[in-house]
Design goal:
By secondary structure, the chain is mainly α. The chain has 2 domains: 64 residues, Winged helix-like DNA-binding domain superfamily/Winged helix DNA-binding domain (Arc Repressor Mutant, subunit A), CATH 1.10.10; 40 residues. The protein has 5 helices and 3 strands; from the N terminus they run αβααββαα. A 3-stranded antiparallel beta sheet has the order 1-3-2. Strand 2 and strand 3 form a beta hairpin. It starts with 13 loop residues before the first helix and ends with a helix.
Length: 126
């Protein structure tokens, strides 16, 4: 299961953020075939968004055959494989880095500070 997080400052509509998080969750192996997602209502309450926002995201993913909804049972990850292109991965990484750098710079950190901290954190994970 993934922990959904919405960023109201990103400028990306919430339904699109939900779609992206599910797609990347599948591609990264964090969501497995047959895994049940929260109900539309449960996710809407958790994220504090309108039911239609979650419903729109789920419907779009159903159209792309990434989700399957079984009436009365729930919504599940389908068996259709997802393959993110290197360009799409790179675009997402660039977006994350820009946002992260922007936030860090508002606190006075330089890019070099960020790089050193990332390297230090990576060593502590090893």
């Amino acid at each position: 299961m993934i922990n959904f997080k919405l960023d109201p400052k990103s400028g990306v509509p919430f339904y699109r953020q939900i779609i992206d998080q599910i797609r990347y969750g599948i591609a990264a192996g964090n969501l497995q075939v047959g895994e049940q997602l929260p109900t539309v209502r449960a996710l809407a309450v958790e994220l504090k968004v309108n039911l239609n926002t979650v419903s729109k995201a789920y419907k779009e993913l159903e159209i792309k055959e990434l989700l399957e909804t079984q009436q009365g049972t729930g919504t599940f990850i389908s068996s259709k494989p997802i393959d993110l292109s290197e360009a799409e991965k790179q675009q997402k990484l660039t977006s994350i880095c820009k946002e992260f750098t922007s936030v860090a710079s508002t606190y006075g950190f330089t890019v070099q500070d960020i790089i050193e901290s990332l390297k230090s954190n990576q060593r502590s994970l090893s």
